[in-house]
Amino acid sequence: MTTTTTGRVAVVTGGSRGIGRAAAVRLAADGLKIVVAYAGNHAEAATTVKEIEAAGGEAIAVQADVADETAVAALFDRAEADFGGVDVVVHAAGRMHLQTIAELDLAEFDRLHRTNVRGTVVVDQQAARRVRPGGAIIQFSTSIIGLQFPSYGPYAATKGAVEAMTLILARELRGRDVTVNTVAPGPTATALFLDGKDEATIQRLAQQPPLERLGTPEDIAAVVAFLASPAGHWVNGQTIRANGGIV
């Protein structure tokens, strides 16, 4: 098993903003070289790279639609060409759409499914083929699966699919010395979460955990960093609800 982070390489999808950016910055601080994958916002991805470089780390930004198998294969090719291989994959890219099941716009649901389910499968395919021994695949679900809030049904359904694949993929990688885990954050103060919520709603959600606050992207990045590290390598096939005790 790998015993050091020196020389290790992480691909982080959704690395331009929010939890993905925090994870990229944290892994870089732990000594990993980072490939910041982003869908379309080059300026945000470049900001992540600059933050990592300013702290003495190494990073590049690569555009890729996570649901496009050709683009994702090219993303991994770039990681191998520039940094020599891939040891950690953090698949933080995702889409959220809130609507009741009765009123659901099925075109929006198709977009959710394409990014959150197909995108996870596409990234996992490349990760399963390419991550080096001692490595880790870390994907994302949501604590909404346990909270069961109205209007989150379609989103929760796509993330339930991610959880269902976690232990299966871990078992499929028997003999490879590669772990697969899913992190399921609770309410976390990201732009994706805060968008469209009034202050009263935000405060109500912040008071639900026993720790009486929203999570931060850095809270979630710390869990990712543990799972990516040699210290977390015995954790495998699990969904970890990082939510301050809300559920």
- From the spread of the alpha carbons, the general shape counts as globular
Could you give the order of the helices and strands?
Answer: EHEHEHEHEHHEHHHE
Enumerate the spans where pLDDT stays under 50 for 5 or more consecutive residues. none
Number of domains: 1
Rg, please?
A: 17 Å
- Class by alpha and beta content: alpha/beta
CATH homology superfamily name: NAD(P)-binding Rossmann-like Domain
The CATH architecture comes to 3-Layer(aba) Sandwich
Main β-sheet, spatial strand arrangement = 3-2-1-4-5-6-7
Arithmetic mean pLDDT? 95
**What share of the residues lie within helices?**
40-55%
Compact description:
The chain has 247 residues and is an alpha/beta fold. It has helices spanning 18-29, 42-54, 69-83, 106-130, 144-147, 153-172, 191-194, 199-206, 217-228; strands spanning 9-13, 33-38, 59-63, 86-91, 131-140, 179-185, 239-242. It contains 9 helices and 7 strands; from the N terminus they run βαβαβαβαβααβαααβ.
What are the main properties of this structure?
single chain; 247 residues; alpha/beta; Rossmann fold; 7-stranded parallel β-sheet; 9 helices; 7 strands; 46% helix; 17% strand
Mind explaining what this structure looks like?
- The protein is α/β, with parallel strands linked by helices and 247 residues long.
- The chain is built from nine helices and seven strands; from the N terminus they run E-H-E-H-E-H-E-H-E-H-H-E-H-H-H-E.
- The protein has a single domain, classed as NAD(P)-binding Rossmann-like Domain (Rossmann fold), CATH 3.40.50.
- The chain has a seven-stranded parallel sheet, sandwiched between helices.
- It is globular.
- The two termini are 33 Å apart.
